[in-house]
What does this fold into?
Amino acid sequence: MALRVSSGAGPRRAALRRSSGPSVAVPVEVPDTAPVVAPTRRGADSPEPPRPGSSGEHVLQEAHGSRERADRFYADQMRDRLLPRMIEFVGRMEMLFVSTADAHGECDASLRAGPPGFVVVLDEYTLAYPEYRGNGVHASLGNISENAHVGLLMVDFVDDLIGLHVNGTARIVEDADFRDRHGDVAVDHGRGRRAERWVVVDVDEAYIHCRKHIPRMERVSQRRAWGTDDPARKGGDYFHAKGTEPSVPREPHAVARPARRRFPSSTHLTGGASRTLRRR
It folds into this structure.
């Protein structure tokens, strides 16, 4: 599918993630006049469940006075599974934005695309998307092999102007193994396009992305050479990177990047390894 922007502002950055591992302290800036309140996670012996979201979210909600709005969003919009209308939405998506991070927390965002139905809902707790032949870097899959937490975003730019976030835990499955288990999944990969492997995501959170900043687009006719390895047809050296220095010294006044630090060992998830899918 090709899209053309007709009006509207750029999409706004979503910021809702729940940490399923130990908390990692991340410095955040808050107004000097706003009190910083420690995040209030309810204990295991409390009759009330813990609040969704990260500790960083909770600190900023208190600092900016938005806790009540956030709690209303958590209660009204966040679910631990795909609801029927979400499943229908996923089934007609032609684009998927994928966010991953490696074991050090270094992030990557990528785009996946295909005909409607290329993202497959296996059940209300599980979805999967195909990995096609690409540039051979395997940035997203490499991150998943180290850190199985993923964030997915699907957006309807044409009709309803709405988005769906899905956060969860991913594992990598070879195409033959996937089809042995899910042979009834009918996916039209397009001419010259075949999945090499699949990313299967166990859903932790599913929630809406509001339409306020989603630009209106319209569909245009365009033929795509899905199976090509021709550099020119894939975009070539569009950004004129070839021939430039891969890395150059920064100016003395530039802020030095902090040294990489590892997450606690308990967050080095092993879910990225290919294995037979478990039945729910």
About this structure: The helical segments are 55-64, 67-77, 84-91, 139-146, 175-181.
